[in-house]
Amino acid sequence: PPSSSISPPMEIPLPITAWSPSPSPPPSISPHAPAITTSPPPSISHHHHHLFLHMPPAQTSPSPSPFPISLPNDSPPPAPKTHSMITRLQTGSIKPNPRYIAHLTELPLEIEPKTFTQASKLSHWHNAMLEEYNALMKNNTWILVPPSPSHNIVGNKWVYRIKRKADGSIDRYKARLVAKGYTQESGIDYFETFSPVIKPTTIRIVLTLAVSHNWVVRQLDVNNAFLQGTLSEDVYMSQPQGFVNTQYPHH
């Protein structure tokens, strides 16, 4: 606490003078008014007295300001806390947690091409397309015929996929040649559609038998699968891009 200095008592002489009103002149007497006799007021003498005031010793202490001083604050008042958790905003720490800075994610370096122009510039994608084309030719999937104005020529495109292993590494590059079936009209080019896929019920039956008999289940990937059947309608498709026959380029 601040040190305070104490002064000795002080005696201050204050002169006090007794006051008496000055004598006023006698009132004038009207000749018609009754006479009133007045006696002069007693004379009051002036006396001087001294009054000594005993003041207590003064003690210096810091006096509080009568008005509170408020400093301007531009920030809004903090919201009342409804929980015991301390946030980074309350502590003033806006830096990110270093535990999440070291989190690494492996991004795929290989990107699947979307067009034939992109895939033809890369040797591994060109080899994948060549493998698909040779498999189609080996199975005698089509024969080259001259076009006719009455035929609806269906286009085709290459679809590229990257097959990966369980650990995320690349297994092989897959290219498929698919026909643009959406250019056909129902009732003119075809009458019904089908998809050569297996039913989920069959898969569940096979897995149930494998579990009950303790069979070892293995998975394999087939490079090319062909439906062994004869089509009842003729389908005319243009030659695949990049593998057009040089002898019959317009077939």
Automatic annotation (TrEMBL):
<dbReference type="InterPro" id="IPR013103">
    <property type="entry name" value="RVT_2"/>
</dbReference>
<dbReference type="InterPro" id="IPR043502">
    <property type="entry name" value="DNA/RNA_pol_sf"/>
</dbReference>
<protein>
    <recommendedName>
        <fullName>Reverse transcriptase Ty1/copia-type domain-containing protein</fullName>
    </recommendedName>
</protein>
<feature type="compositionally biased region" description="Low complexity">
    <location>
        <begin position="1"/>
        <end position="21"/>
    </location>
</feature>
<dbReference type="Pfam" id="PF07727">
    <property type="entry name" value="RVT_2"/>
</dbReference>
<feature type="domain" description="Reverse transcriptase Ty1/copia-type">
    <location>
        <begin position="139"/>
        <end position="246"/>
    </location>
</feature>
<feature type="compositionally biased region" description="Pro residues">
    <location>
        <begin position="63"/>
        <end position="80"/>
    </location>
</feature>
<feature type="region of interest" description="Disordered">
    <location>
        <begin position="1"/>
        <end position="83"/>
    </location>
</feature>
